[in-house]
Structure formats: C-alpha cells, structure tokens
Design brief:
Layout (H helix, E strand, L loop, with lengths): L7 H11 L8 H24 L11 E6 L4 E6 L6 H9 L6 H9 L4 H10 L11 E9 L6 E6 L5 E6 L5 E8 L14 H12 L6 E8 L6 E7 L16 H12 L7 E7 L5 E7 L16 E5 L2 E7 L11 E6 L8 H5 L2 H24 L1 H20 L6 H4 L5 E3 L4 E3 L1 H6 L7 E6 L3 H5 L5 H5 L4 E4 L4 H8 L1 E2 L2 E5 L10 H13 L1 H11 L5 E4 L8 E6 L4 H9 L11 E6 L4 H12 L1 H18 L7 H11 L1
Parallel strand pairs: 1-7, 11-13, 16-17, 16-19, 20-22
Antiparallel strand pairs: 1-2, 2-6, 3-4, 3-6, 4-5, 7-8, 9-10, 10-13, 11-12, 14-15, 14-17, 18-19, 21-22
Helix pairs in contact: 2-6, 9-10, 10-15, 17-20, 19-20
Bound molecules: adenosine-5'-diphosphate (ADP).
C-alpha cells in the first residue's frame, strides 16, 4: 500500500517528538487521553441535542491496557470516532487548535532547548505518542459512518490508511513502545503502577472514567480474573472544593487548557448558590496573546452543564470589555438539550453573564488596590481594551470601567487612577489637566506643559489614540472637568492677570494680525500665549478636533488627504526674545518678518510632532538668517 506523506509542518513536529530528549515524555498519555475525552464530549453533545434513544452517559469510558509481551499500550474510547476524511485531516496534518502557537514558536527555528520547553508547556497533541512509541495504529469508526479504518505510522516516513472491521463506534490507539536504548529506558511505560501514576497526575479531572484491568484472585483459589478499576476521581477542577485545589493546580489547568506559557495574573473562583446554581473558574491572563487586538482573537468561556461541555466558547458570557478573560462556567440550571441558538437568548445565561461581569470588575479593583505592581502589568497588556470599553456603545460601560483606568501623572511621576489624581489636587486647582502625545517623554517636553507644572499641578499624559475619546466621553470625573493643556484658558490666572494679558494682546494686535496674514490658511488664529515660559511658540487647536485627533484620522487607511483637520492656533510667547526680534523686523523689515513668521510656525509644528510641508524651505530660511 502506498504511503502518504505528512504535511511539512507535521513532519517537523514529528521529527521533534521522535528525537525528543524531553524528560517528561510521560505527558504523551495525557494528550491521548484528553483527545479521547474530547471525542466522548462530542458524542455526548450529539446525543443530547439529537435526543438519541437509550442514551446513557454512564456508558462512556476510556480504557487503558498494557501488554508487556507485545510492548504495547492501548487507549480506547467510545467517543465520536473519525471518518476516513477526518483521519486524513486530523492525523495527516498538524491540528489547527492548540498546536498553532507551538507552530509559531517553531518557525523561529530556535534551538532544541526552547522546543523542549514548549513541549512541556503546551499539549502538542497526538504526535507526542511518538516520544515513546516506534509505531502507532489508530483504529476508528465514526458515528457518521458504517465503515471503520486503521491509520498506521512508524513516524516521519508517512502513514497508511486501510479498511477494517470494528463493531463499536469509537477509537482505539495502540502505541508500540520503543526498545530501551543506552540513554533511555522505555520499559517503565509498560508497568501498570507507573501508568496509573501518570493518569492520576495529569488526567485525574477527566470527566469520564479511565479504567485499567486489575488482576484479581478468586477467594480461596488460585484462579485469576480481571476487573476494571477506575483510576481517576473524575471531578473537574472547578467542581472541587477551594481548599483542595492549590494555586499551582489552577495555573497548571489554565496553561494546559488555554495554551498559555505564562501563569494567569488572577484566578477567580465562583460558587453561586440560590436561584442560579453555577460554578465558575475564570482566569485573567498576564500577557495578551499576539492576536489579541486582531479579528482572529475569539472571546468566550467554556460552558458546561452538569459537567458536560455544551459549548467550547460561549461569547454571550463575557462583555466585550472583558474579552481577555478565559475560563469555564458550569451550571445545572441550563437545560441539557438546549440548542446554541436558543442559548443566545437564554435569560439565565444573561444573568450569569451579569454576575460574572460584576465579579471580574471587583476582582480587578481588588488587584489594583492590593497588588498594584501586578495590576500595572495587567494594565500594560489589556488597558487599551478597558479604554475601548469606556468609549464603546456611547459610554454605557463607563461606570464599570473608569476606576480601572491608569494614566501617567506628571506630578506623581507614575501611573495613577483618576481618583488618586483628583484627591491629590491642591485646593486651588479647578481642572484635571491632560496632554496627548506619542510617549511620556515626548509629552513631558511639550512647551505648553510648563505653566501647569510651575503651578504645582499634575498633568495626565495620554499616550493612546483612544485616550482623547475617553476623556470626551467622561467629560468630568468627581465633578472636575477635564482640560486639554492646549486650551486657550487653563484657569491658571487671577482676574488681574487675565486683564493684564488681555491688555497686552490688544497692544500687540497689529503684529498678531500680521503673523496670521503671513501664514494664511495654515492657522485659524494667532494669539499671545498664557502658558509658555521658556519656549517661544507652541501650536494649539480650537474646537472639538485636536491636533492628536487629526494625526489619528490621517493615519487611517485612505484618509491621508481628506482627513478631518484640527483648527490650528499659533501661540506666541510675548515675553520671549524671539518675539522681540519679530517685533523689530515687523517695524523695520517686513520681508524679514514674514520669514521669521514661517520659521516660528515650523518650529511649532516640529514641537507638536506634526508633519512639515517644506523642510528644505525651512532649512534655507534658518541658514539665511544665521
Ligand atoms: P488537538 O487535540 O490539539 O486538536 P491532536 O493532534 O491531539 O490535536 O489531535 C488532532 C485531531 O484528531 C483532534 O482535534 C481530533 O479531531 C482528532 N482525534 C484525535 N484523537 C481522537 C480520538 N480518540 N477520537 C476522535 N478524534 C480524535
């Protein structure tokens, strides 16, 4: 029979498995058993939704048998089985699901050591059998078909599939254990005691009985017989008493189930009793997956009812703003043969989702208050998600999310909550000041921050595109208005100072008008600044659209030319030498004055990180005046 070749990436993984020097080879059994358990889940699901006659969940089991003479371990299940096409698809190519991140890591072509680490962290699935077996056969019959097939492979040189006879629906996997070598002992996997230990260690929570034949003696005689012994306790981790499960157990379950190599930042356990009965184990990851902020990422929690999985990813259980949460919800209230469509409108499900949202919120708040460093780590990864949450749906979620936000404060010189900012405001301060820029360093050097800082007031530095929208949606916080430091009136001056400034503005009107005329349509206004101290100019804006929003709109695909523009305002520092020079030129040499206007405006653009139209002209003008 012609051998079929594995797909390239499968070959690569197989190669890795066969030649693995990984010390925890024992995990192969966990992988094979978890596939068996998934297959039974699928069969249960089909039976429940189609209302199969005489269906009994207790009929399901996973059987593990050892044959020392033949050197085989056999794992059989009465799950859903596979059709010929599924065999090809599933075992001829590397599976899409969990192995994906593994694949990404592999393509970097890293050293063996790194790869070994990955084997330990992730389930690498079916192929891990080749860490201990020189040959593997898979005999299977699908619930959808009357035919049965045997898939067989000795490793990288490919696999064969042939017809066979099999009475029961399900799958039987036979692993032919490798002979011992000088460095490796494989015999240990043929000892029942060792295999039982491995099952207990990794597969104790599997919801179906994992049985092994146990040799018994008929009392009072020498006659032997075998009886099935169930090895696992079958209680899923989320169903167990809190006191019986350690943090490490939860973290291990999380990493294995959700394919993360990092411990979660927080495990949330819920045991709700009353009108709604459910248990939940939720995880807040410590790192955002690479695909997190893309369409590829899918939110949702696994949904079980009475320990049967009915949905791997139930989206309705999580609000968008907490879509980073992973976990499991198990409720006895949901009807067993509920269909996915009905589920979406289920009232109880909605209620559970509401409770979960509240709980997630309160746990995040606790983390923020009690374990600040951890929270900041979380916020670096998922803060952007919370901000999107504030602005989405016209701000209806803002009450839930606002107190979870952190911004850098120039006064505290660290990340603070809005509440911390407001409660440390001096009495004289009326506004919550904020400045928008690309980075903390860039904002920190903006000339217009000077006056606010000099007053001893803090400024919140907004470094994300969405931040200005957040501020707009919030409007106020603890009755304090937000104030962009680009605004004309920052409320820093006394009435006298204001009158003084107005007088000065009036006196300088001719020259300000001249500057406006020289710059034409580029700017909406030119005015004397109230906030500049050591710098000669800065750029501000008037109206709803700020300079930063303009930059953001310009960055959107296809928007470069048509993007909405901010109404630009040029502010000049009336006390600066540059202004004196401009004044002098205005009186004596108008041509030179026009050039100075252009230089000052370009300087303002540069400081504001805005594109300049004509860099060459600017360079020429500067050189000319030197
Ligand atoms: P993963 O479990 O991460 O999807 P595997 O390589 O372990 O990857 O398995 C590939 C696929 O083969 C599974 O997704 C499943 O569809 C199928 N499969 C494996 N073992 C069984 C089994 N015992 N019964 C039915 N299908 C199975």
């Amino acid at each position: 029979m012609a051998k079929k070749q594995f797909k390239t990436e499968s070959k690569r993984i197989l190669d890795l498995m066969i030649n693995s020097i990984y010390t925890h080879k024992e995990i192969f059994l966990r992988e094979i058993i978890s596939n068996a358990s998934d297959a039974i889940d699928k069969r249960c699901y089909v039976a429940l939704t189609e209302g199969a006659e005489g269906f009994d969940r207790t009929d399901f089991k996973i059987r593990v048998e050892i044959d020392k003479e033949r050197r085989t371990i056999t794992v059989s299940d009465n799950g859903i089985g596979m059709t010929r096409e599924e065999l090809e698809e599933n075992l001829g190519t590397i599976a899409k699901s969990g192995s994906l991140s593994f694949k990404e890591n592999l393509s970097k072509d890293e050293k063996d050591e790194k790869e070994i680490d990955i084997i330990g962290q992730f389930g690498v699935g079916f192929y891990s059998a080749f860490m201990v077996a020189e040959k593997v056969t898979v005999t299977t019959k699908s619930i959808k078909s009357d035919e049965a097939f045997v898939w067989e492979s000795t490793g990288v040189d490919g696999y064969t599939i042939r017809d066979c006879v099999k009475d029961e629906v399900g799958t039987t996997i036979v692993m032919y254990i490798k002979p011992n070598t000088e460095d490796e002992v494989y015999d240990e996997f043929l000892r029942p005691y060792r295999i039982k230990g491995i099952i207990k260690k990794y597969s104790d929570y599997v919801r179906y009985p994992i049985v092994m034949p146990e040799e018994k003696t008929v009392e009072g005689t020498e006659a032997k017989y075998y009886e099935d012994e169930t090895i696992n306790s079958m209680v899923p981790i989320w169903q167990r008493n809190k006191s019986d499960v350690t943090d490490e157990d939860c973290a291990a379950f999380y990493k294995e189930t959700f394919y993360d190599i990092n411990d979660p930042v927080k495990v949330i356990r819920i045991n709700a009793e009353g009108s709604l009965n459910y248990k939940a184990m939720l995880f807040i990851p410590s790192k955002a997956p690479m695909t997190y902020y893309t369409k590829e990422y899918q939110k949702g929690l696994a949904l079980y009812t009475s320990s049967v999985m009915i949905m791997e990813r139930c989206e309705e259980l999580l609000p968008e703003h907490f879509r980073f949460v992973k976990g499991v919800v198990d409720s006895d209230n949901l009807s067993l043969n509920i269909s996915r469509e009905i589920l979406q409108h289920d009232r109880q499900l909605k209620q559970i989702a509401n409770n979960l949202e509240k709980k997630i919120k309160s746990e995040l708040k606790k983390l923020l208050l009690n374990e600040r460093e951890k929270y900041e780590g979380f916020f670096t990864e998922f803060g952007l998600q919370l901000k999107y949450g504030v602005v989405s749906d016209y701000g209806v979620h803002k009450d839930t999310l606002t107190d979870l936000l952190l911004y850098y404060s120039s006064f505290a010189e660290k990340m603070v909550t809005l509440e911390e900012y407001v409660s440390s405001m001096p009495e004289s301060q009326q506004y919550i000041y904020y400045a928008r820029g690309e980075s903390i360093a860039k904002i920190n050097s903006l000339p217009q921050t000077e006056a606010v800082k000099e007053k001893g007031y803090g400024i919140l530095y907004l470094t994300d595109d969405v931040d200005e929208f957040v501020v707009n949606i919030l409007g106020t916080f603890m009755e304090k208005e937000f104030k962009n430091i680009n605004d004309k009136d920052l409320g820093l001056e006394s009435d006298e100072e204001k009158a003084e400034a107005e007088k000065k503005e009036e006196e300088n009107k001719p020259i300000l008008d001249f500057v406006k005329e020289a710059l034409g349509e580029e700017v909406e206004f030119v005015r004397l600044s109230h906030k500049l101290k050591s710098h000669p100019v800065c750029l501000a804006s008037e109206g709803e659209i700020t300079l930063e929003m303009e930059k953001y709109f310009k960055s959107l695909p296809g928007e470069k030319e048509n993007a909405i523009k901010a109404r630009r305002v040029l502010e000049l520092n009336g006390d600066h030498r540059a202004f004196e020079a401009l004044k002098k030129a205005f009186e004596e040499d108008k041509e030179k004055a026009v050039k100075l206007c252009k230089i000052l405006y370009t300087e303002a653009l540069l400081i504001a990180d805005m594109p300049i139209e004509n860099a060459v002209e600017f360079a020429q003008l500067v050189s000319e005046l030197m």
